[in-house]
Amino acid sequence: MPEAACYRKVDLHSHSNFSDGRLSPTELVDLAVEQGVTLFSLTDHDTLDGLPEARQRAKEHQLSFLNGVELSTQWKGIPLHMVALNFDPNNAALLSIVQKNQHIRLDRARCIADLLVKQGLPDLFDEAVALAGNSQLGRPHFATLMVEKGLVKDANKAFDRYLGNKRLGSLRDVWPELDVVLGMLKDENMALILAHPKRYPLTVTKLKRLLADFKAWGGTAMEVASGNERPDHVRLMERLSQEFALNASVGSDYHGPFGPWTQVGRFTQIHESEVDLVWRDWV
Ligand code: AMP
Ligand code: MN
Ligand code: MN
Ligand code: MN
Predict the structure, then answer these.
(1) Closest Cα to residue 225, out of 6, 7, 10?
(2) What CA–CA distances, in Å, run from 261 to 86, 156, 229, 267?
(3) For residue 282, what pLDDT is reported?
(4) Ligand 1, residues 47, 111, 159: which to mutate, most atoms within 8 A of Cβ?
(5) Cα(66) to centroid(ligand 1), Å
(6) Could you tell me if 147 and 125 are in contact, meaning their C-beta atoms sit under 8 angstroms apart?
(7) Where does ligand 1 bind, in terms of residues with CB under 6 Å?
(8) How confident is the model at residue 4, as a pLDDT?
């Protein structure tokens, strides 16, 4: 039996309240342990700030923990997320990308608020900033406020009508280009993982173009399961990971007990023996 076989419960994609998740890093790690997870990563959007707390709590539980982050980027005008794992939190290139994205988040939030005002909604900027506090400000904060004020029925409606990529117009394209981000990070000793490939508005032909670019620019892995996708979708991602020589990663993308998210440690089963697991070298 390979050593990795004892890591039955791996979750390498999750969010705390340092970005748009509900739980603190401590609460999140406690939940991961409760769910039987044995290898875990916190991957908040564009911030490393929750990692020390999560790492400390993981240590208290003797849970294997990897530093993680989910970076916002774009490819051919399409917003894409990539997860970086297993890095030194003082990595200068990574810190500069994170810092840049944090500025973009604030500027973009101002523009999103203006866009909503143009559509007849109140100016939500100050309240969104206050609601986010120390966490990375994002569209979910606007969605929460819109629900609270009775402007929409639920967060899904807020994204459908106002905040989704289709509604954002040119505000979709604010993130750094994927080739630039990968170029800055690729010589570092970390996994560079394309997050939830099935969630982008891409045909399989276009997704293959993305994967070819991702690999050529220094990407090392892709998520093959990141929630409750259909098994045939996971199958396809597994085949593509082999075709493009990208390691396979998995995660729940847990944000909290709301919306479409699965529980920590839960995602559609993968065929571990048929892919190259991204965590194989770390266990
Ligand atoms: P941002 O980081 O500001 O671009 O916001 C993206 C985040 O919004 C994602 O990471 C999800 O957590 C959340 N999100 C995206 N689509 C939806 C949706 N339809 N309903 C609720 N939350 C969503
Ligand atoms: Mn999110
Ligand atoms: Mn994402
Ligand atoms: Mn995520």
Answers:
(1) 10
(2) 24, 12, 11, 10
(3) 82
(4) 159
(5) 24
(6) no
(7) 20, 45, 138-140, 155-156, 159, 255, 259
(8) 41
- The domain defined by 100-172 folds into DNA polymerase; domain 1 (1.10.150)
Q: Is 246 strand, coil or helix?
A: coil
CA of 75 to the centre of ligand 3 (A): 14
pLDDT 10s digits, 68-123? 999 999 999 999 999 999 999 999 999 999 999 999 999 999 999 999 999 999 99
Q: Residue 144 belongs to what H/E stretch?
A: helix 139-148
**Separation between Cα atoms, residue 222 and residue 239, nearest integer Å:** 11
Cα(59) to ligand 1 centroid in Å equals: 30
The alpha carbon dihedral of 214, 220, 224, 226 has a sign of negative
Under CATH, domain 10-90+177-282 is a member of which superfamily?
Metal-dependent hydrolases (3.20.20.140)
pTM (whole model) above 0.85: yes
- The neighbour count for residue 97, using CB atoms within 10 Å, is 22
Q: Which amino acid is at 268?
A: T
Locate 226 and state its tokens: 């990141």
